[in-house]
Batch of 4 targets.
Target 1
Amino acid sequence: MAWVYNEQASDNTITFQFGKNDSSQAQFSYSLNFEGWRGISVPFRDMDGTPTAGMNRLTITAPDLAGSLLFDQVMMAVPVDNRWPTPDYQQPFVNPNVVDMASKNWTALLMYDQMLREDNPRFNFNAVFDDNLGDTAPLYHQFDQHLAVKTQAIITQAKIDANLAKYAPLNITYNADGSPTGTPLDHPKRHNFLKAGIVSDETLAMLTDTMSIRTLGKTMLETAKFLRSQSLSDANRAALEKAFIDATRYALDQGWESGSGFQIITHVATRPANSSMPCSSPDNCLRTVNCLNQYNSL
């Protein structure tokens, strides 16, 4: 298990090779067709080769290209429930039986995404959303009805200030290359595998010192509902839009993006109305045309 940060997406792969001394026993390739962070969770049973007891070496081979790869939380032999490792577009070979498991409603996300694309070959997944015109406008009206949005509601300054303050724990800033950085964004259920005493209490505290995606999702949902109000001043609308867009960019960079299995997905997206997954997608949660236009121009 590990996390990897990729500066620039490519059609290449990196190879993880496990062995003992100078001999290789097992290996797998991981796609680099992404930018930002991705979680790696590959059981030995899903690797090529035959893993053996006593393996003491990991070799990572990267393509000879410009750019950097960053690695974090590399754990080479961790006990994990066999239902949890999540296949995605970087590691599609992982846990192939997940499509038949009772937990496939959240662990077989790759299968559902592939089915959606196969059944809708002409659907434009990159369409610009507009809340007033075109085929996407009815979606906004349905969102408004489902979330009980009142466009004529008066949003007080106290509510706006309280909402904006909820983004502060993310500590979002931007690097020189324009990439966002801040507090790690995670979901608590992913850490269930760490509760077997395999790391010290100090290490566990460090690994779990994160911002909850559920908390962020609820904050962004509140922001999105505020942005549907027609009572906002220009200054307040600009502040809410900036907070929402910064958080969206950061969530995507952290791996909360289409095609990413986030290493382990368990008990996530079972309650769409309250879950964080819809709110980390610009397609679903950028509910004003101004926000969408700004996002697509980034």
Note: DSSP finds nine helices and eleven strands in the chain.
Target 2
Amino acid sequence: MTKKCRFLSPMMMLLFLSCPALWAAPAAQPLHSGSPVYNERHAAMELRTILAAQTAFHAANNRYAASFDELTAPAANPPYLDGEWNAPRRGYVFKITPKENAPDVFDAVAEPWKPGATGIRRFFIDQSGVIRSEEGKAAGAESPPLAEIDYKEPSGTYSPPESSPGFLRGALWRLAGYQPPGVWAVVCLRTIVGAEVAYHAMSGRYAQCFEEMTEATPAFLDRDNKRYTWPVVEGCRFTFMPVADPKVMFIVIAEPEDPKTAGTRWLLTDASGVIRWSDTADIGPDSPPIGESRP
């Protein structure tokens, strides 16, 4: 009986040779879609989104929502949250704890859908805006706070050759943890919203510049993070715009300076937590909101 010699197809060989993530031994867990580290990062970002939605809901109803159904209901016009939140989202399950006779209090948790496989850490947030985490047990109000963007970063970003076919480049990007241009601008704006909510809870007003949040003790935004170099992050410049009353409003605009990393769209967010976009510098409260992840 003869054994057939099997070879990789030319396309599989190209994929294998073009992406070091497939054949090199990684020094740390890769940050790609579906990995526990990636899911943990996304879970923390989603908690900031929930915080912004709850803040807007409280401003309109003098209480916090007791369920995701209240935040996503079409009756809100527009809803405070988009998408399905009663099902797992990128490996995590999110829950809001109902609070009876406590209109000014809320908390939400994010737990791995499949512990160890889709995520390791468990997260908690409440009206203070502080995200807390635990490993191996439920997170709560007494858990240690999560440091600003406390995530394991990949050792580097792999850029596939420009000559690669479009579908192959997309596969290589996802395997190597590549983020499309403009994604980090959205992430930064959500981070700013969460920091502003916490700042407002402590001081009774919204910060009107980065120094107010980075030089506070403790800092509401990390001032020593290599990636978050406010006010310019990943080729995008973030600017606070003047407002009439800092007690009720803040406005931040994201201006793309480097299209390769920041894309070409302008973004804006304010105390509502909604992120809006425009193809030009003509952006304001009436600009259309972005989708759930990016324009």
Note: The chain has two domains: 28-178, 183-278.
Target 3
Amino acid sequence: MSRILNGATPERIGAEEFIPPPKDCFAPNEFLARAALDSVLRQPASHFGDTTQLESILRRTEVERRREKYLALPSREELIDNRRRQQTAPSNELWLALDLSPDDEKHACASAYDGRLTPGPVLGRFLLKAPDGGPRQWSAAQLTELAACGYKFFARRVLLLREPDEADYEQTALETGSLVHEILYAIFTQAEPSDPTSLRASARQVLDEFHRRGRLGARDPAFFELEWASIEAMVNESIDHEIEGQAQHEAATEMHHEFPLNFMLSRESSTVAMGPLEIMLVGQIDRLEIYRDAGRIRRLKLIDYKTSRRLSEYAELLKPARFACEDMQMPVYALGAAESFRPGLASDATVEASYIALKNRDKESEPQPIPLALLGGPLESAGQKTVAARILNLVAGAVAGGFEVDPLECSEYCPYRRVCRYRKPVFHS
């Protein structure tokens, strides 16, 4: 671009005299200001006096400012990490010392635009009532979603946002896990658990039968054969681990496989508008061992099978600093087992929990003792730090409309990443 002054030689003019720098043009405040002043509209005269549009722009600007402020505040994920590092309580108090509540400032800043719904009868009925009018059934998986991230639970369980399952030639991880559980259940229920010969014979018979049925129903027999080699190895190694454990450890008085759970939790005093908070917990414990002395139960041991190699990661979930934090499976199972056998428990009874990672050579994690007092009971009062209270607090928060984008465990591979506003800090550990 050039210009001529007083007939002299043309002078070149830089574009910056007419066009602001790009960084200023695309700044949010600059863009909104230009839109508000109709600088970029085709018919400025007809819109300049439209106060409705200007008010809408201002409201949206304020919403974005509030959202930016909300997401900039520490998440519970960061707060919990800090509290763990600052933990100074004696070892026998670690179980009850961890505070799982969100940051007060962040909780106060949450709004209808940041994962907060207006509580009401419709939401309350959805979360607390079954279609027949009875208490709604809650599983450990649902509570884990709610504990880890309220928005993830809201998107999956309330809005029902799910990607359709696409049938593939290979089995999914869920299908493989379910099949292994079925095989182990059949072996342990058909064989004499204390007899190694009976266990091996039952394993061979059950594996042959499941292989025959699975191949007939497979989407692709060749892919099924590849996966079956892994399944067969996991099952045989699990039987070897069982036989070795029987030779080294005390035999259980009773042993239950796929033990069903179905029990109630309630709170006498509640702020829920629909009345006392009451839920039903359901599930299945992969393996429950009972040890008795003189008829009384002195020890309950829970074992959960995982078709995984990540034994150390699962073992961490049982430690005091992580127990009932973002993963609720073992806490729910431990509470359910204690409730199922509470009348027969000795005064000094203990509860233990461990994982068996079927693809890991070490197989079983070290059994973690869980204080019976930590589990709580079916009737809880507000303010208690127990597993039962933790469960009721999670559900009560959801009934109150609290689905804040405030995770305890945020994964970059979350299926709801595309619709979630929260962005994990880059350098957060």
Note: The longest strand covers residues 277-293.
Target 4
Amino acid sequence: MPRVQAVQTSFADGQISPRMQGYVDLPSYKNSLKTCSNFFPLPQGSLARRPGTFFVSRTKDNAQVRLVPFNFGQGQSYILEFGNLHVRFYRTDAVLTEDVATISSVDTTTNTLTLSTSSHGLSTGDDVYLTLGTGAAAPGGITTKDISFTTFPEPTFG
């Protein structure tokens, strides 16, 4: 006796639950899949390949973290990195940072750099991300650790 194989023309209902796999009389059964790996179903019924991934940044201290998607509203999507006693925010493929100051000079003989601001808000042990000359960040940023900052007192005029 010949074997009959049904043709499935739509996958619009996506991956079906294992508890629903026995209900062949449901309309959603005919439009679903048992397993949908590396694809996602489109509303029109076809499947599209899952987009790839790319490297954005290392985790803080290269430790294990939990990444949580957060959608604040239309066009305001973030990824939150929860680690040991810290949270970092990612948006548009980069870590959100604060522009603290512009580096005005670097002395390679003493390994010091000069910031062009009177108050920068940085403390010893803070993570500092440096960007390259034209504002284009290096892949993952250039991170420096164990920086000690010297704050000079504000001059008083009087």
Note: Strands lie at 39-41, 47-49, 66-73, 76-83, 86-91, 94-95, 103-107, 112-115, 128-130, 142-144.
